[in-house]
């Protein structure tokens, strides 16, 4: 199932179009909401100043269909194609959108390799422990910068936080605690079991949101960065689940 989801997300295309007729923020919201109605559309960013609409879609949508969504040829909003490279736009959009989390993963990965490197090579148990320590400490840091914002975003999709809003506040400190526990190698069995349980619960809401194509903000880096929910979020959670399970087995 994950492979299917990942393939769908990687095949997603993003294009920027010219949109005339927008004069205020209300116009921006109108254009955005109208385009989001289309089932193939997974995200829209609109700018009245630049007269543009950047649309993420699962498959190509013709200009006529986009115009129809805006009210037809008689609408005050008229959409036209840009003369840009769609392939470059798609690549730029992905890396520009997820640059913070990709950089964070690169830093944590690099640190973990250095910290776990010995004369004979990488000690993989240590690598996973350092990686998880860096992951939880870094991600909890961004959540704690704006704890209220994180809790509100998290409650939009997490199965526990939806019913118990306070769970969002607690979750950030659980991540911090897990980061410290992995860093000092505190009771590895208990630490990995807690990680396995917490991350398994967390991924349920993420999977539901991605499968239902809900256009909401991912709370993985708190409210500091506006990252959309995507397959990347699933991979983050699955990575933590896989590592904690592997460490428990290897013990």
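-> sequence recovered:
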């Amino acid at each position: 199932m994950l492979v299917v989801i990942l393939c769908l997300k990687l095949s997603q295309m993003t294009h920027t179009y010219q949109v005339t007729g927008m004069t205020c923020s209300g116009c921006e919201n109108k254009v955005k909401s109208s385009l989001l109605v289309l089932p193939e559309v997974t995200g829209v960013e609109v700018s009245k100043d630049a007269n543009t609409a950047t649309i993420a879609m699962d498959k190509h949508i013709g200009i006529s269909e986009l115009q129809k969504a805006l009210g037809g040829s008689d609408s005050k909003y008229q959409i036209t194609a840009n003369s840009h490279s769609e392939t470059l736009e798609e690549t730029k959009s992905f890396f520009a959108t997820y640059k913070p989390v990709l950089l964070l993963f690169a830093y944590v990965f690099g640190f973990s390799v250095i910290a776990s490197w010995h004369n004979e090579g990488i000690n993989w148990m240590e690598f996973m422990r350092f990686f998880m320590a860096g992951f939880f400490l870094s991600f909890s840091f961004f959540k704690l910068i704006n704890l209220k914002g994180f809790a509100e975003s998290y409650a939009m999709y997490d199965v526990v936080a939806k019913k118990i809003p306070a769970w969002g506040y607690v979750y950030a400190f659980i991540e911090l605690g897990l980061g410290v526990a992995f860093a000092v190698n505190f009771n590895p069995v208990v630490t990995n079991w807690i990680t396995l349980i917490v991350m398994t619960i967390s991924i349920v809401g993420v999977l539901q949101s991605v499968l239902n194509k809900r256009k909401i903000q991912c709370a993985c880096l708190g409210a500091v960065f506006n990252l959309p929910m995507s397959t990347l979020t699933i991979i983050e959670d699955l990575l933590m689940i896989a590592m904690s399970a592997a460490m428990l087995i290897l013990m």
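The longest strand covers residues 13-20.
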